[in-house]
Amino acid sequence: MNFAVISGAAAGLGKSFSYELAKIGYSTILIDLPNTGLKNICLEIENKFDSKSLYYETDLTKIENIVEITNDINKRYNVSILINNAGIGGTKRFNDADITYLNTIIQLNVMATTIMTKQLFRNLKKQENSYVLNVSSMAAFSPVAFKTVYPASKVFVNYFSLGLYEECKNSNIFISVLNPGPMKTNPEVTERINKQGFLGKVGLLSPDKVAKISIRQLFKRNTFIMLNGNKFGWLMLKAVPIWLRLSLFSKAVRRELKHKQ
Prior knowledge:
This protein is of the alpha/beta class and 261 residues long. Helix content is 55%, strand content 15%.
């Protein structure tokens, strides 16, 4: 029995990935923080799709936790899909952000994506065909004031994924990276999107829609997944000078920040 491992699986896009993979016949291993309802999600998946579903509760910003759970997974299960979906952002003036806030973004978006992949890599190598899907963001294509670290962390996810794709293109492991636009994944994110005005809503899709399209594109071996609603935005971003992108997106985020004050 081969499993799909999904991080950040308790809500939003991660939960949608879990349901989508179970729907098409994959057994799943869900990872998220303690007390986020993973047990109930696994039970619902098993009852609804007659598909095995397991879970690990841990904080992925701690490297020792990643090592512990991946060692256990490697001992007990065959993994043919890894989805590095766990990530975090936010909106704060850099001067007002404490180091714990900044470090959490870096550890979850950068370190956890890298170390989860490294730890499960030998497991993925053992299977006939394996897939890694790393979740980046449209935010990776422009710097933004008041979100300084988040877009930078997503640039890392893109470059890490594409470099690893090149390393693995003649192997049994296919590497892909997804760049979704805004999604109303939880009440806090929904509030932020609503406050950003028109620019915050460009390419807005539901997590279920994003998951369905992304899994389909992953199996088509699309290494750089851009959703239909975001392709035009991506092309426009490439055509707009960086100073203008920076100004426009920062203005939208500044509007969100003013609403919070």
